[in-house]
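Look at one record.

>
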Amino acid sequence: MLYHFLYPLATDFHIFNVFKYLTFRTIYAVITALVVSFLLGPWVIRRLQAIQVTQVIRTDGPESHLKKQGTPTMGGVLILAATVIPTLLWADLTNRYIWITLAIIVGYGLIGFLDDYKKVVEKNPKGLSPRQKTFWQVLLGLMAGAVLYATPGFSTELTIPFFKNLRPDLGMVYIPFVMLVIFGASSAVNLTDGLDGLAIGPVAINAGTYMLLAYIAGNAKLSQYLQVPLVPGAGELSILCGAMAGAGLGFLWYNAYPAEVFMGDVGSLPLGGALGTFAVITKQEILLVIVGGIFVVEALSVIFQVGSYKYRGKRIFRMAPIHHHFELKGVAEPKIIVRFWVITIILALFAISTLKIR
């Protein structure tokens, strides 16, 4: 909204000309997200405590987690507010990609909210059934894919890292492919959210990485120089990526070990869905496997654990997801968290380097 109100004034007041620059608006989207987090964070935590929206700890998990019983949860509402508000303030709201991503964030946020509400408030340990959650996640993903497919000029080709001329065109198959990317990313982040700050750190790093990739995808000169697909209008998405990175850092202020609040599904589902949407719109879908490598490993550890136990009657890990395996092996929780952050930074840098390794 600030963009639409203030940029037109540039014809009379030159100072407002800065609002046309993506870099300026992205920086202030990050700052705004941090300000929103710091202003609303204490109030949100107090409200969650007051209405007794607190985490119920699994008794079959690591014993060290039992002390977290009673910690407020559903703090993901703070992340959503700190992401959406700056985006509405600083982004060009005529941009289709902004609204597609916001729709995924809000839609997946509602799914997570209902699941958390049933578990925490209604004391239904099952929450939404897996079938219900999957149905709505898949439906929203398919809708996003259909809108992108119908967008004039939007390519259905895939960009394969390390190969500049290998770009298979999926055609209409691109719609379910988009759904798989968004749904898969959402589920993977949800599985990773098990330790204090473990999920939100890599989410912020991933969002920051796609902030750069979105800027490149929307810039004709940079995309041509780096030989990546040009997606006109995708640059505006860097503002939303920046807002999400700022919101993640702001939430980490309260979620760092020992956590004052947990994000819950209302946070993890939409954050993962947003990362998947960033990847699709910037035409860097496959690169998400590298950037979000921590999330991929966490998801695969669950898949392999379940498959091995079902067909072999044996477990591969002491407990899945894999971060619990390391806990049960005696690695301190803060060390696991920080090491996962370090690995994510390394993967992000490697992913960015692939733009030149072709």
Q: What stands out?
A: The radius of gyration is 20 Å.
